[in-house]
Amino acid sequence: MITGAGQGIGRAIALKFAKEGTSVIVNNVTEDKAKSVSKEIEEMGGSATPIQADVAHQDEVTNMVSKVMDEFGKIDILVNNAGIQTSSPFLKLPVAEWDRIIDVNLKGTFLCSQLVANNMIKNNYGKIVNIASIHYIIPRLNRIHYDVSKAGIAIMTKEMALELAKYKINVNCIAPGFIATEMNKEILGSPEKLNENISRIPWGRMGEPEDIANAALFLVSDEAEYITGAILNVDGGLGLK
Ligand SMILES: NC(=O)c1ccc[n+]([C@@H]2O[C@H](COP(=O)([O-])OP(=O)(O)OC[C@H]3O[C@@H](n4cnc5c(N)ncnc54)[C@H](O)[C@@H]3O)[C@@H](O)[C@H]2O)c1
Question: 29-81: per-residue pLDDT in tens?
């Protein structure tokens, strides 16, 4: 089950997992995007089920998990990818904007993880991957709400990993750097801003959604069985500066 898989990083993870033969639940807050990625997967011979739900709402997450359990009987992998970002200075940040970012990014990760983990423990098996951001640790101007939500996801990953290890559930986190998705459309649309952002990346290029999908695939693989509570920076070295 991959949240926010209707485009960008979530879509890339959904496609990658489907290519490996996984039945993918494509969640998105907008139904059309969930359906179009599911269609893409079906057309390449994979298996996908679109489910519309807003991860910030407990009742919608509960319905989604119930539907999946009724249809498939278990969830082996959860990727908490759904996330939103806005820009506002701390001194002027409206409380409603703070609430929405925290609700989607942080509470959404908690709600999905708690419900899914309660099913995973019955099988003594599970893989949870949380998508944070390299800004969980590097502050920026105008992103206090987003960066705090991602710092929350990082420590939540470790808390969950600690509690769930005895059920053989791995919980890990990916901290992406600057990735070419719609979330960065403003920067992508301005050659000047784009060059400025790339100049700060030691590896010399933006990340692609596929870079994050590769890391997610590793973290849910048997090869990563002994890794839990880890935060993996996938950022071309952006976090080193
Ligand atoms: N793009 C980057 O540079 C970057 C960097 C670091 C971290 N991230 C994180 O990666 C994740 C994916 O980002 P992206 O760049 O692919 O963004 P994106 O905006 O391209 O895609 C996000 C997807 O999540 C969906 N979504 C939004 N709110 C939702 C909700 N409440 N419930 C369910 N689905 C919802 C959107 O409809 C969209 O399909 C996010 O958590 C983001 O914070 C992105």
Answer: 999 999 999 999 999 999 999 999 999 999 999 999 999 999 999 999 999 99
* Domain 8-234 = CATH 3.30.300.30: no
Nearest-atom number in ligand 1 for the CA of 54 is: 32
Give the C-alpha separation, 45 to 17, whole Å.
12
108-121: pLDDT as tens digits: 999 999 999 999 99
CA 168 – CA 170 distance, rounded (Å): 6
For residue 203, how far is its CA from the centre of ligand 1 (angstroms)?
23
Is 136 marked active-site? Answer: no
- Centroid of chain to Cα 60: 18
Shortest-distance Cα residue to atom 2 of ligand 1:
179
Cβ-count burial of 7 within 10 angstroms (0-12 exposed, 13-18 middle, 19+ buried)? middle
Tell me if 222 sits within 8 A of 216, measured CB to CB: no
Ligand 1 within 6 A of CB of 50: no
